[in-house]
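For reproducibility, we list the full input for the flavin-adenine dinucleotide complex.
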Amino acid sequence: MKYPQDTVQYNLDGQAAMSAQEYQYNYDRAVEKLTSIVRGDVLLPGDAAYEVERKVWNGRFDFHPAAIVRCVDAEDVRIAVNFAREQGMTLSVRSGGHSIAGHSSNNNGLVIDLSNLKTITIDPVNHTARLGPGLTWGEVANTLQPFGLAMTAGDVASVGVGGLLLGGGIGWMVRAYGLSIDRLRSVELVTADGQLLRASADEHPELFWGLRGGGGNFGIATAFEVDLHPGGTILGGAIFYEAAEAEHILKEYARLAAAAPDELSTEAIIALAPPAPFIPPDKQGTPIVGILLCYTGDLSAGERVVAPLRQIATPIADLIAPMPYPNIFALTEIGEVTGLQHHGRSQFFETFSDEMLHTLVETTQSVMSPETMISLRVLGGAMSRVAPDATAFAHRDKQGMVLITHFAPLSVDASSLAARTQQIFQALMPYANGVYVGFVADEGEQRVCDIYPPAIYDRLVALKNQYDPTNLFGLNQNIKSSVPAILAA
Ligand SMILES: Cc1cc2nc3c(=O)[nH]c(=O)nc-3n(C[C@H](O)[C@H](O)[C@H](O)COP(=O)(O)OP(=O)(O)OC[C@H]3O[C@@H](n4cnc5c(N)ncnc54)[C@H](O)[C@@H]3O)c2cc1C
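The corresponding predicted structure, in tokenized form, follows.
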């Protein structure tokens, strides 16, 4: 195997510290050693499994890493971290592989793949669980369901525990049970120096603060301990309306969803109707507004709460019904499809004002194509009642979030998808304030300041200085260490 060229070290006189042959020899020996000591697999270019495992969810990114280490336990992760650091390699950390920015792989560096770390241990008496980062949220929901328990998470079943649980976690139960990070008790973490430590309210409390929202900046999480909450049967599903009255429907949606009790979490979408059996044939391919919802709690009370959302106009389909919580993920199966190109941008809003919704509808109508999907979430509830500085997630006061996406096969012209995404994003900019780390694409360094306002950013920099001064964990929405390179090394 060819050594990664970008790891060559240079002396002050500009000469390579070692010849290419020496690098190659040393690198090959290091890979042999790595392969012999990890219990998982080391996949290299040319291996059949490498071709499968190098792929990530977002088809826009076609990376060829130098090696993929498929870890089976925390010790494998420690070994792989030490290898990446000693070889000076670019490092990607991958749990579920759903990084919108394409951070879960790279060219010519190392991928530490955690998808085999799927152990889940449930304590049904104390309502806690220990989750491996490689689990998906669909797997977590299905495993907890027989116990009548659940864990507030995202909306799409295939998203990984690892990435979402370090970023925030905004989903079907966010207003009822808060962000996923709000239910974290502890994180087991391999740090840049290869140590395995535990961060909780009592152990490394400042690190624990930063891990809840700071993404993968400080180490690799090998297990999470979480508080669970009731799951069981929810009232959930979707109502679809024709988009002719989109502005009226969205204004009513925003008003009703914000006034609803915490038990109701919702999301509205604007898209072209899919050719699904529940959409009347003459409406398929026409613009629709959907309201997706999940009510946890007493079902008859839920029927009363959701009734006004079902009566905003005449629905073309109403799929709301009691269902086991894991079934609700069927609504977002499109998000599970791997390999489509995805162009997405997101924004938080203090609130969804009439003016902002007017602009959104007007702009969306002018750029709408079969690939367009706009999602609006009314937030608040339990998520907003945690103190703003309790975790590194900054935007708890925001009442609204928009995600603008274009999903398409690779054959569709990428620049036109990106341009349409950008057009809607720009139109909404005057009303927006901040962004969620999980929904930031490859948007440049400045955008990190929109995730983390100064007071939070400064605390994260202090943690970076302490736990990763050389920025080994650099492929993420990156917090830069302020330690000079010569001192950090
Ligand atoms: C289709 C889709 C739907 C989504 N829906 C939601 C949603 O409803 N709610 C929501 O809150 N978010 C949602 N997200 C955003 C999601 O939370 C982030 O993309 C998240 O990072 C994905 O986690 P992952 O483990 O699947 O991704 P990965 O690509 O594996 O990881 C993403 C990044 O997280 C870091 N990371 C991952 N695992 C670890 C680990 N164990 N230790 C340290 N760092 C790690 C790394 O920096 C990595 O680059 C969605 C994303 C997609 C693509």
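The chain is about 30% helix and 20% strand. The longest helix spans residues 20-37. Both points were considered when choosing residues for closer inspection.
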